[in-house]
Amino acid sequence: MIGYHMGETVSGESSRERMMHAVGFHEHGDIEKFQLLEVKRPVPTDDEVLVDVAAAALNHQDLFAVRELDHYVPEYPFWGGGDISGRITELGEDVDGWSIGDPVVVNPAVTCGECEFCIQGEHSMCKHYQVYGEHRKGGFAEYVTVPAENLERVPENYDLVTAAAVPLAAATAWRALSTRGQIKPFEDVLIVGATGGVGTYAIQIAKNVFNVNTLYATTSTEEKAEFLRDIGVDHVINYTEENFDERIWEMTNKRGVDVVYNNVGGNTWVPAMRSLRNGGRLIVSGATAGPNPETEIRLIFVRQLEVIGSTQNSRKDFQEVLEYVWNGTIEPIVQEAYPLEEFDRAFSKMANRELHGKVLLSQE
Questions:
Q1: Measured distance CA(175)–CA(310) in Å, rounded
Q2: Number of Cα atoms under 13 Å in the Cβ half of residue 310
Q3: What is the pLDDT of residues 253-306, one digit of tens each?
């Protein structure tokens, strides 16, 4: 850690102002706006804990926040980091079942627990839905306050830094393919934009958990293609050299695939629909290449396609995917971990799309 370490605080300590470091911004722009800040350390409420952050993974939402592509930043300075792991260093007065020093990973979705959707277990549809790194300051800091109900215990034999690569990406892919998409072992699946964090989890979920019949994926270089084959993709299509919808049509004997998972948007939207068989399902949970693509409505009604939206995760989704992570069925793919002070290198990798897996800011 930079300056402060677990064990300095316990419940009941004096409320004197304490400081910490965070990687955030005071104004919008691009990644050059990120800086290492000295800010007030947060204080947990009665139902929260203070987590001494071990690591936090980068996500596209962190780029959206600084670029102000969505207007959800509550106050400045702001820092992101929705994927968080660490150890509990302070307990709120009403928190039971947890102890100082417990290793934890944070469910990034904060919900009210009382609206009609929360009562039904559909927490990602909550009317008061918030996400760390979007609506709440996240894990790009030495400490973060977290509602106790958003904690999951990390097994003692599991690497705590690696655990930070799990929450947002793994739970997003799990909800999209399992809960919402309901993929089946006999189906053929295409993943568009497969080398990022969500994509690498989607590959493992499709292959290692659901054992789909044939798994296709798109990418932009031969190096990335080899990486995708190594983690389970049957057929990789380089979209810089050929139209992936035409290639899918050839490889499936003009049938198309049963499911396309598109976490990209932009100019991949119509080709994704064209890649589907009649009655196929297009699942979408992101728009990293643009949220307002051209579309082709006739494809939807003539081929009777289903377009299925999915957003992050419910608590059940989060707990389900963690079980597969802890037992090794799904493995987080960490490309690189940087110290907090080297945040500029980490954000440059993401902004330049040089990723195959997750990039972390580590404080271990």
A1: 7
A2: 30
A3: 999 999 999 988 889 999 999 999 999 999 999 887 788 888 999 999 999 999
Paired sense of beta strands 276-284 and 257-262, if any: parallel
Interval 321-340: pLDDT, tens: 999 999 999 999 999 999 99
Domains, in order of start, for the chain: 19-166+332-362 (3.90.180.10), 170-309 (3.40.50.720)
Q: Please give the Cα distance from 81 to 77 (Å, whole number).
A: 14
Give the C-alpha separation, 161 to 88, whole Å.
14
- Beta strand pairing call for 48-57 and 143-147: antiparallel
Q: Identify the CA nearest to 262 among candidates 205, 178, 183, 177.
A: 177
Other Cβ atoms closer than 10 A to 117: 18
The residues, ordered by sequence, that sit 6+ positions from 281 with a Cβ below 8 Å of its Cβ are 181, 258, 259, 260, 305, 306, 308
Q: Whole-model pTM?
A: 0.90
Query: H/E/C letters for each residue in 166-211?
Result: CHHHHHHHHHHHHHHCCCCCCCEEEEECCCCHHHHHHHHHHHHHCC
